[in-house]
Write a structure and sequence with these properties.
Strand content of chain B: under 5%
Largest sheet of chain A: 7 strands, parallel
Number of domains of chain A: 2
CATH superfamily of the largest domain in chain A: Glycogen Phosphorylase B
Structural class of chain A: alpha/beta
Oligomer: heterodimer
CATH topology of the largest domain in chain A: Rossmann fold
Structural class of chain B: mainly alpha
Helix content of chain A: 40-55%
Chain lengths: ~400, ~190
Amino acid sequence: MRIGVVCPYSWDVPGGVQFHVRDLAEHLIRLGHEVSVLAPSDDETPLPSYVVSAGRAVPVPYNGSVARLNFGFLSAARVRRWLHEGRFDVLHIHEPATPSLSLLACWAAQGPIVATFHTSNPRSRAMIAAYPILQPALEKISARIAVSEYARRTLVEHLGGDAVTIPNGVDVGFFSGAEPEPAWQGGPDARTIGFIGRIDEPRKGLPVLMKALPAILEAAPGTRLLVAGRGDEQEAVAQLPAAMRGNVEFLGMVSDEDKARLLRSVDLYVAPNTGGESFGIILVEAMSAGAPVLAADLDAFEQVLDGGAAGELFPVGRADALADSAVRLLADPARRTGLRERGSRHVRRFDWSTVGADILAVYETVTDGAASVAPDERTGLRARFGLARD
Amino acid sequence: MPTLTTVIWIVVALLLVGVYLSWTAGRLDRLHARIDAARAALDAALLRRASIAQELATAGVLDPAASMVLHQAAHGARQADQDQREVAESELSQALRAVFAESAQFEAVRAAPGGRETAADLSAAVRRVPMARRFHNDAVRAARALRRHRTVRWFRLAGHAPFPLAFEMDDEPPRLPADPGRGPSAE
């Protein structure tokens, strides 16, 4: 099958959608499909052979933050050329409801189009204003995929219609096969807790964990907290008593390999996020590596953890509840082993072998009896007047 | 010359209205084509599921009672008239759920000679029916929303195309255990 994938965010900036597109493309190529990914990128950045650059993304303030987007005639021309040369059987776009390359591709193409909705943003003013323009583009999408039941609910509320839920994929074997790092492993009276995420992004919840840490250290003095992620380390420990700062180790940005080894080594993985999550891929990665998970009870997390069966949940933002659960789990090896086993069984549904098969089933469903993807000539101005004269 | 200017403005306005109408008609046409494709895919998915169910029922790997239930439901789904189809397909969903409620039944299918492929086909078939149905009903909803629009109704842009109907059925698949030989590490 010839598959065209559009990634709306810059290839050179790490992010959840980019990783998902990369892993999906590589998985499909391994299965013998022809895949081409169109993504914004600096022309100097080296790209994998299957990625086509759509030009540099321009930073624009949008929806309260700075988004890097592609628009304008040059991008539109590149999209049309890519569509024309690719002759794809199916076009798979990601995040089509933001002003991005995906929306441009959706606007410019006709034929079987599959769209994946990753985030569950509240409906923005811009979207309401643009709705009459957006709707004709969005109604070309033959199949919608939401990455979680939560993302699907928001999609249905905002845009109407329906979507199938297919979770994000994880290479379970990569995490379960990683070598544990002895320096990150805990002993019987010096357990280790792991946290991965941006330090300076409050929604990732490190401040909640820092607030819970004194109570945890009081009950289990030898415990160490290992933090992997970008941000100001001094500021992160500022509210912690000086004597306890030695129990926090910052690892900075870690590679994928080190991330897997960290998750494989720790006695407990804590995800204290306070919001803004529509899936929670890090929890799946932690479970794949066999780390017992303690997470905030966000809708998305609750769903990934099978309603609390595959990992423990605590009320969002409640440092005292987090500390209680962490102390209890750290003192109870049997419960941790139970969580490890249940987690490892549960993550099999997130493995690329399962997720990839589901995505391919969607492709096959929409391509059954449909023509292939082509540039939509009707959007050309000349063609429009040609039609108008009829 | 005010009259000439007025005429030019009227011509421009008419032209714009014409462009808008032709564009809306094109949108509607594309939506109808999308419904047709989605409906064909849904028919294919339903037929595939009924075929594999019938194959299982006549293969002799299930007990006689389960075979009869499954055969009856699969036969009913394949032979149903258009207006009875939703009910018949729902009954097949219920029969599949009842037959495969115990995982031992599915293990028996898998253990039979050539059963691995049949089991994989069944898992794929029951998974695709809800998928195809959602895509179909999503297309129907989009078309209905556009057809309710004033412009479309006043100018009769939908022509003689029938008002699209959603396909309503119980498509909850049975809980089939994953193939242990095809786990995450098998790839």
